[in-house]
C-alpha cells in the first residue's frame, strides 16, 4: 500500500474527532452560550461519575475474556513506560523552565498521560472501516482492535485517575499549604514577639522588686507550653505528610469501574451478562447505553475548553513548545524503540494491529481527563486550556503523520 493511501486512512479518524470538538467549541461561544462554564462543570461531573465509568466497564465486559487477557500482558507494561518516561521528561521541563510550583503537577501530568481513551476508540474503528486498511477485514479488525483499545484505555484510566490525579492534587495542596504556612509563620512571629515583650517587661518588674534577682527563674509553665507547641507542630507536619498519600483517592469511579469490568470479563459472570441469551444481558445493555455518552461528551468538553485556550494566551510559549516536543517527538521516537525491541524479543505476539495500538499510546496528545481534574481541584484551569488547545491543534497533524508512519512500519 502506498504512503498516500496510508495517509488518507490515518487522516479520517482525526477529522472525525476534530468535527465533534468543533461542535463543542461552537456551543461554547458567547453568542450561542449553550455550553457555558456551569454547563461544562456539570457535564464534567456526569462524565467522571457516570458516563466514563460505564464506558470503561461495558467495554471491558464485552471485549476482555480469560483467554485473551493473558496474551495482552505487555499493555500495562507499555503504558507504565509511557508514564515513567513522560513524567521524567516533564519533571526536567519544569526544572528548566522554573514553572510555578502549583503548575508542576499539570505540566508533569500533560507530559505523562496521553489520551488513550476517546482518540484510540475513534481512530481504530475508523481505520478498520477503510477498505485499504493494512489490518485485514473490517469485522475482525474492529473486534480485535476494540479489545486492545479497551484494555489500553482502562489501564490508562487507572494511571490517570491515580497517579496524575494525585500529582496535581499534591502539588496544588502543597502550594496552598505554603501560602497558609507563611501566613501562620507571620502570625506566630507577631504572637511570639508580643509574648516575649510581655515576659521581658514582667521580668524587669520582678528584677526591680525582688532583692535576690540573680536567683530569678522564668516560670516553668512557659517552657512547658513551648515544648508542647513544638510537639504539636511536629505532629501536624507528619499528619500533613501522610495526608498527601491518600490511598482512598486512588479508588475513583473510573478506577473502580475498570476493576469491576475486568473482574466480570475474566470470570463466569461474563456468560451471565454478555450475549443474546444471557439472563442479565439487560444490565450490560443499560451500562453500554450510559457509556455511549462518554466519548461524545468528553470530546465536546475538549472543544469547549479549547475555546478558552484560544482567548487566553498567557502561558509561556516555551513551556507549550516543550510539552509539544515531549509529546509528539520524544515519546513517539522512544515508543518506536520500545515496541521494536519488544517485537524482537517476542513479547507482543505477531498481530500488527496490537503493535499499532501500543505505538499509538506514545503519540497521542495529553489526556482530556487532565482538564477534568484541574476543574475538579480548580488548579491551573486556564493554563490547562491553553496547553490543550495548542497540543490538540498540533495533534491534528502530528497524529496523522505518526499513524501513517506506524502503518508503513508495521506493514
Automatic annotation (TrEMBL):
It is found in: Endoplasmic reticulum membrane. The chain crosses the membrane at residues 6-29, 41-61, 73-94, 106-127, 147-168, 287-307, 319-341, 353-377, 389-408. One of its GO terms (biological process) is auxin-activated signaling pathway. It comes from the Eukaryota. GO terms for cellular component: endoplasmic reticulum membrane. It is a multi-pass membrane protein. Signal peptide: none annotated. Pfam families: Mem_trans. Keywords: Auxin signaling pathway, Endoplasmic reticulum, Membrane, Transmembrane, Transmembrane helix, Transport. Belongs to the auxin efflux carrier (TC 2.A.69.2) family. Involved in cellular auxin homeostasis by regulating auxin metabolism. Regulates intracellular auxin accumulation at the endoplasmic reticulum and thus auxin availability for nuclear auxin signaling. This is Uncharacterized protein. It comes from Cinchona calisaya.
Amino acid at each position: 500500500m502506498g504512503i498516500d493511501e496510508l495517509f488518507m486512512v490515518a487522516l479520517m479518524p482525526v477529522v472525525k474527532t476534530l468535527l465533534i470538538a468543533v461542535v463543542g467549541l461552537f456551543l461554547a461561544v458567547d453568542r450561542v452560550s449553550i455550553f457555558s462554564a456551569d454547563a461544562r462543570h456539570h457535564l464534567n461531573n456526569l462524565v467522571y461519575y457516570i458516563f466514563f465509568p460505564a464506558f470503561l466497564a461495558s467495554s471491558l465486559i464485552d471485549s476482555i475474556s480469560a483467554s485473551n487477557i493473558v496474551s495482552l500482558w505487555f499493555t500495562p507494561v507499555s503504558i507504565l513506560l509511557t508514564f515513567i518516561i513522560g513524567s521524567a521528561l516533564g519533571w526536567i521541563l519544569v526544572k528548566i523552565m522554573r514553572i510555578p510550583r502549583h503548575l508542576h503537577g499539570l505540566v508533569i501530568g500533560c507530559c505523562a498521560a496521553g489520551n488513550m481513551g476517546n482518540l484510540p476508540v475513534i481512530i481504530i474503528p475508523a481505520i478498520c472501516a477503510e477498505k485499504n486498511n493494512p489490518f485485514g477485514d473490517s469485522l475482525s479488525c474492529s473486534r480485535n482492535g476494540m479489545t486492545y483499545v479497551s484494555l489500553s484505555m482502562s489501564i490508562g484510566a487507572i494511571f490517570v485517575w491515580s497517579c496524575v490525579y494525585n500529582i496535581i492534587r499534591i502539588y496544588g495542596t502543597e502550594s496552598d499549604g505554603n501560602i497558609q504556612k507563611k501566613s501562620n509563620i507571620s502570625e506566630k512571629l507577631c504572637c511570639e514577639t508580643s509574648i516575649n515583650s510581655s515576659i521581658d517587661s514582667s521580668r524587669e518588674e520582678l528584677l526591680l522588686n525582688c532583692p535576690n534577682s540573680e536567683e530569678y527563674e522564668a516560670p516553668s509553665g512557659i517552657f512547658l507550653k513551648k515544648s508542647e507547641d513544638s510537639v504539636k507542630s511536629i505532629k501536624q507536619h507528619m499528619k500533613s505528610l501522610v495526608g498527601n498519600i491518600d490511598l482512598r483517592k486512588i479508588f475513583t469511579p473510573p478506577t473502580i469501574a475498570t476493576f469491576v469490568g475486568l473482574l466480570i470479563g475474566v470470570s463466569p459472570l461474563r456468560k451471565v451478562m454478555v450475549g443474546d441469551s444471557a439472563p442479565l444481558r439487560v444490565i450490560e445493555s443499560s451500562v453500554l447505553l450510559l457509556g455511549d455518552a462518554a466519548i461524545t461528551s468528553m470530546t465536546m468538553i475538549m472543544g469547549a475548553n479549547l475555546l478558552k485556550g484560544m482567548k487566553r494566551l498567557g502561558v509561556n510559549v516555551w513551556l507549550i513548545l516543550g510539552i509539544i516536543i515531549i509529546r509528539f517527538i520524544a515519546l513517539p521516537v522512544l515508543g518506536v524503540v520500545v515496541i521494536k525491541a519488544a517485537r524482537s524479543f517476542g513479547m507482543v505476539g505477531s498481530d500488527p494491529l496490537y503493535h499499532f495500538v501500543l505505538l499509538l499510546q506514545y503519540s497521542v496528545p495529553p489526556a482530556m481527563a487532565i482538564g477534568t481534574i484541574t476543574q475538579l481541584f480548580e488548579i491551573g484551569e486556564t493554563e490547562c486550556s491553553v496547553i490543550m488547545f495548542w497540543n490538540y491543534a498540533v495533534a491534528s497533524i502530528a497524529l496523522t503523520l505518526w499513524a501513517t508512519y506506524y502503518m508503513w512500519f508495521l506493514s
